[in-house]
Amino acid sequence: MLGIEFPPELKVSLKRAEEDKRKRREKFKSKQKTQAIESDDYFAYIAGYTSGGAPYGITWEENAKINEDTSQREQKEDLHF
Question: Which of 5, 30, 47, 57 allows an S-S link to 43, with CB 3.0 to 4.6 Å?
Answer without folding.
Answer: 57
